[in-house]
Please model this.
Amino acid sequence: MTREEVVVERRGDVAVIVLNRPEVRNAVNAAMARAIVDAVVACKDAGAIVLTGADPAFCAGLDLRDLGVDDMGELAPFVAAVDESEVPVVAAVNGPAVTGGFELALACDFIVASERAAFADTHVRVGVYPGPVAVDLPRRVGIAMAREMSLTGNFVDAATALRIGLANHVVPHEQVVDVAVELATAIAEQDREMVRLLRQDWTQTADAPLADARRIHMEFARHSPTTSSGAGIAQRRDAVLERSRVQRGTSGPDDDFLLRGREIGR
Model:
């Protein structure tokens, strides 16, 4: 029986995409590249996606010993498929994410890292000019740290990734997928059109001058499915307050000040 290069699981409104070539640390060949693209397309009905690897690695980059094509340019655009996904993607980095695998993690909206995670950009060391990492990494960690990582090819461990803003969370290894699914579930609960517009808003305003960014943002705001009436907001307020109490482990009417009319601009 042929093993699937990529496995897709459903957990409610969240799709979990698992890179499934553990014997080569989930290194990407032509078949896996196509499978990643196809999986992202197949999950476009999900509220959010979690992308992870079968242990022991997240993704070791390209499988240069078994690439399956004569030229890397012939591979299906697996990193672009994740980067351009209309569904938010959370990376659950369960182990090393190296070069092309690092780019795949960076293509996600944010990263939840296992304590076993490690990150490296070794493009220059293997004699390949960097791909999207040259653009994406400075935006995540700042230009100085990006230069250090790409010019040295040194590995960054999970604790350092958290400190420099590469990872949002570092969690025990056995919890990394569950934590990522929990966050993805919270995203999936939101209005999908508003989420889609907000992600486009961030993309288009990220490098625009301040005045232009504010103008672009206001255009997105005008076209968003915003609840504009006080009554509509009030209908959602109780649920938001209850969620806040559960998250913070509190209860009681004293919490109501968080979302009273004057605090939300009424």
Observations:
- The chain has a mean pLDDT of 91.
- The longest strand covers residues 6-11.
- The chain has three domains: 6-188, 191-226, 229-266.
- The two ends are 62 Å apart (CA to CA).
